[in-house]
Amino acid sequence: MASQPSSQDKQAEHGTALAARLSASAGTVLAHDTSLVNIIGSQVNENRCWQGRYTKEDVYPVRELPPANPSFTGRQQELDKIRSVFWALTPDGMQAGSSGSIKTITLFGLAGAGKSEVALRYAHDHDDKYDVIIWIKAKSEADLETGASRAWDRIISRYTATWSGGPLPELYQRIALSVHLFDAQVSDFNDLKREATSGQHSIERLKAWLPGNRPWLLILDDYNEPEACKIDSLLPSTGMGHVLITSRNPSVSTTDVQIEIPPSLGESEGVELLKRTAGRLVYCCCGKLDCQHAETLVSSFGCFPLAISLIGSELREQKGSVTFRNYPNLPSSTAEPLSSKLGTIFQRLFKRLSRRARELIQLYTTAVHGAVAELHSLSLVSQDPNSGSLSIHSLVHKYAGTTVKHQEKKQLSQWAVEMVTATFDFGHNRSADQWTYERSILPHVNRCFAILLSDLTPGEGPLDVQTRKLAYRLAQTYSQLGQMKGATTLYELALRDLELRSTSDSAVIDVMNSYGICLRLEAKYEDAAKWHARAKEFIENAPPSWELSIGGSKRLKMLETELNLAAISLDQGRHGDAKKELERILEQQQEELGESDVATVKTQWQLAQVLYLMGNLGNALERFRFVYESRKNRYGDHHPTTLEAAHSISTVLEEMGEYLKALALLREVLEKQTSCLGTTHYSTLKTKNTIASLYECQGLYDEALRMSRQVMKELEDVLGTAANHPWLLRVRCGVADVELRLGKYEDARKNYTAAYEGFTTRGMMGDAWPTQINITRVLRDIGQYDAAFIRCEEALEELQKNPDIDRRFVSVAKFCKATILELQGRYEEALQLYAERFREEEEQPKPDLVEILKMRCFFGSTTTKQSRYQDALQIYNDIEEEVQKLDKSGRSIVELLAMRGKADVYLQLGRYDDALKLYQTVCSIKETSQLKDPEYYYTVYGKGRAYIEMRKFDEGLGFLQDAINGWKLIFDTADHPYIFMAMEHMGLGLLRRGEALDNRKAHSLCKQALEGCEKMLRDGHPQTCQARASLGAVLAEQNRLNEASNVYAASLRERRAEFGDYHPSTLEVRRLLADILWRRHRYWKVWWMSVTGPGGRGKALAASSIGLLLAIMTMVLAYSKFKRLSWPRHMASAMELLSRVFRN
C-alpha cells in the first residue's frame, strides 16, 4: 500500500501549484514585460523550495478576526447547521469541506438577534480547520476596502513571519510575487504594504489570492444593502473555501443555504447568557430564589440576546451586594412590543450615565461614531480590537437619539458637523491622503449633510455665517469626491437669498466660484457663467480693506475668476476664445506670481488642454509635462492633480500613435486614482475611458467595448438624469466607435445619433459635427453611400468654417469623403482627395507614418478598381518597404490593409496562388484575434473568387456563401452592396461549373445582384455595370442571345459614359458583346445553309460579314489593350475568342 503523503510533501505540492499559477499569470498578465517574466521564471523554483520546507507547525495562519465573546452561549442548533453544510461527511467518512469547492451560507435575522455572534463563535470553534480566516464588515464599499486592507496586513505578516533567508529586498520581492503583486517593485515592508493595500485593488488582489489557500473562511458581516456594497468584487469563484454572510435581510443573498437566527434564545440559554454577562461576583451572590428570578427576568424580555446582555452589564457595574432580584421594573406584559421593552432598559442605563457620557453618546448618535470607557463598560458601545475604533449598536443608536432634548439638538448638531468638517483641508497644500481620508469617512459626511438640512437650516431665508461655512466645506468635500448632486444642493444652500451688497463675508467669493466650477462640471454652463460673473462683481465692489481677506490681491482674485470663465469657453468648444483669454491670464500670473505658482501651473494646464483640442500636439505635450513635473515636485506622484496631468500626457501620446507608452502611463494613473479617489470618481472613469480608447487603437475590441460600456453605466450612475452631459455623450461616442469596429452597426448608429442630438441640443457643434462624421461612417459601411455622402459633405463644410476646430477632424472628414467617393465608383475624385490628405499629413511637423501608409493603401485599392493593376502593385510593394519603420501596433494595421489590397491585384492579374496565400494570411490573423468584421468576410470573398478562377468550384462557392452569410449576420440585412457583389460572383461560379441546375441558379443570383445594385447604387456605378454584364453572360450561356445582347449593350453604354471608349472595363464588355455577335453570325450561317444548301455558303457569309467583322475588330482591339496592361486573364479570354472565330 502506498504511504500517505507527509505534511512536507503536501506543502511542496502546494508550492508547485503556486509556481504553476505564477507562470500562467506571467504568460497572460505580463505578455509585454519580458523583464518581469524573467524575474518570475528565475524565482519560481526558489519559491517552490521555500514552500516545500514548511511543515504544518511552521505555517503562520492568517487571522483577521475579532476576539471570541466569553459571554456567548446557546445557538448550538444553528452552529450545528453551519458545520453540517461546510463539513458534511462523504459516504467514505471523509469531510467534504476539504474538497475543491466554495460553499456559502447566509445567516439572517432581526437586529440584535446575535447573527454576528454566531458567525464569530463558529469561526473560533473551527479555528484549527482553516489556514485563513478573514472577517470583513460589508455595510459599504468603504467597509470592504478597509477590511481587505486590514486582511493584507495580516497576510503580509504571515509571510514575513514565516519566510527568512537572503537579502531583505529579494525577500519582499518574492513575497510580492506570492501575493499576486506581479507588477510591483518592492524593497521593504512599507512598499509591500502600500502596494497590497491600495484601495479597490486590495479587494481584487484578495479575491485572487484566496483560492491559492486551502481551506479558507471569509465572513462578511452586516451585509444588508447590495447597492451599497457589491460583495461579488471580493468573492472568489474557484478554490476551496467557505463564505459566511450575516444580514438582516434574507432577500439580499442568492446563496443556496440560508439559516435563520431566531430573535430569542432558549430560556436556559438566556439565563446562562445573563449569568456570564453579569459576571462571577453577581452570580456568586445569587441563591435559588435569585436564579428563579433570573429565569423570570429573561423570559419577560423575550429571551432577546441584546436585552439580556444590557441587563447583565448593568448588574455587573452596580456597587455593593447585587443579585438578580436587584433588577426592578420588569415588563408589565409579555405581549409588550420588544422595542418598548428595550426602551425600558435603555432608560434605566441612560439615567445611570454621567452628564459627559450622556452628551458623548448623544453626539455620537448625531454624527460622530465614538464613545468612552463608561459606555463600553455598559455594553452601549463596542470596540474593534484591531483598529481601536468604537461603534454603537443600531438599536442603542436609535434610542440615544430620542433622549436628546429639542433645545440641545441644534447645538449638538453643529458640534458634530464642525468636528467632522474641521478635519478637511482644501488649500493649495491639500495632500493626496486627504482625498483618501474623506472617501473613507463618506458615511459620516453624508450624515453631516442630513443633519445640516434637518437641524441647522431654517425653512427659508439666508443662512447665518457659521452655517454657511459648514455648508460650503461639505459642498467642497462632495465636489472633491465627485459627488456633484450633494455639492450642488449645499452650494445652493450656502448662497440662498444672498445679497452681495448687504454681506460683509468675503469668503462668499470662494463659495460662488466653487459653485460655478461645480455647475461647469455638471455641464450647466450658463448658470456657471452667471455665478462667476457675480463673483467678479463682488470683487470689483470690494473695498480696499478686504485685500487680505480675499487672497491678498483683488487683481489675482479677479484672474482666478476669469480663469474659471475661460474654462467654460473651453468646455463649450469655443477654443479660440479660451486660448486668447488663457494666454492673457497666464502672462499676468507669470509676471506677478512666477512660473511655479499653483495658480500659474493650473492656467498652463488649461492652455495645454486648448492646444491639444486644436491639434497643436507638440506644444500641448511640452506644457503638460511641465505641469506634471511641477505638481509632482509639490505634491508627489499620487496626488490627484499630478495624476490629472499624467492622464493629459497620455491623451497626447495616444493621438501621436504611441499607444504602448500611453497605456503603460494610464495603468499607473488608474491604480493610483483608484486608491485615492475610488472606482466611481469621474476622474477615475475618465482614465478608464481613455484606456478603452487605447484598447480600440490596438485592435483589442472586446476589451475596449466591455470597459467603455462599464464606464458609461458608472458615469450614468454618477451623473443621474443628466443624459446629455458632455462627458456621457463622449463616452457614448467611444462605445459606438468600438461597436462600429465590431460591425455592430445598428448599436453604433443609435449611440452616435444620441450623442449627436445631445451635442446639438447643447449647441456644442464642435463635438456635434465630428459625431456626424461618425454617423456617416456607419451609413457608408452599411452600403448607404448617397446618404453618407450628403451628411459627410454637410459636416465637412461646417468643420472647415470653424477656425477653432481641431484640424484633425477636418482631415478625418476628408478621408471619409474620399472612401465614399471610392465606393460610389467616382475614382478620380477619390484619388484627388486621398492625394490632398496625403500632402497635408506630410506637411505636418511630425508626420504620422501610420496614417500616411493607410492612405496609400486606400490609394492603391482605388487604383486597382481603375484597372491600373501594375500601378497598384507598385504602390503595395513600396508600402511593404515603408511598413518596417513602424512599431508593432501600427505595423499590424497597415500590413493587413496592404496584404489584402495586394491579393486583390494578384487576383486580377491571374496570379491566383499568390492571391490565395495572402488572403489566407489575412484570414488567419483576424481569426487569431477573433475579429470577424466585414473586412474579414471580404477576404473570405476574395478566397472564393480565387478558387473559382482556379476551377475549384466547390471550394470557391463555399467561401462565397460563407461571406454572404457573415455579411448578412453583421449588417443584419440582405441589402448590402458587398452581398450583391458576392451573389454575382457566386452566379458566375455556378455558370462556369456547368452542372445541370447551375444555369438556372446562376441566372437567379445574377438577377438578384443586378436588382440590388440598381436599388442601392446608381445606374452608372461600376458594380451595377459589372452585375449587368454578369447577367448578360448567363443569358448568353442559355442561348438567349437577343436578351444578352441588349443587356451587354446597356452595360456598354454605361461604361462608355463612365470611363470612355478605351477603358479596359469598357473593352471587356465590348469583348463579351463581340462574343454574342460571333455566335449570332454562326447561328445565322447555319440557318442560311440549311435553307439554301451547300451552294448558299457564300451568301450566308456575306449576310453575316458585318457582325463577324465587328467581332474580330473588337477582339483585336481588346487583346492589344489587355496585353499593354499585362492582364493575362483577359488576354487569354480575348485570344480564345479570336481563335474560335478563325478556326471556324
Question: How would you characterize the overall build of this protein?
Answer:
Helix 19 runs antiparallel to helix 20, helix 32 runs antiparallel to helix 33 and helix 42 runs parallel beside helix 44. The protein is mostly helical. 46% of the residues are buried. Among the domains are: 201 residues, 3-Layer(aba) Sandwich (Rossmann fold); 82 residues; 61 residues; 75 residues; 85 residues. The protein is built from 51 helices and eight strands. Strands 1-3-4-5-2-6 form a six-stranded parallel β-sheet, with helices on both faces. The longest helix has 29 residues. It holds the Pfam family TPR_12. This is TPR-like protein.
Broad shape:
globular
Give Rg in angstroms.
40 Å
Record field, number of beta strands: 8
CATH architecture type of the domain at 60-260: 3-Layer(aba) Sandwich
Number of helices: 51
- Through-space gap between termini: 93 Å
Helix content: 55-70%
Low-confidence stretches: 1-59, 367-373, 1083-1104
CATH topology of the domain at 60-260: Rossmann fold
Main sheet overview: 6 strands, parallel
Q: What's the mean pLDDT score? A: 76
State the name of the first-level CATH class of the domain at 60-260.
Alpha Beta
Q: What structural category arises from helix and sheet content? A: mainly alpha
Spatial order of strands in the largest sheet: 1-3-4-5-2-6
How large a portion of the residues is in β-strands, by DSSP E? under 5%
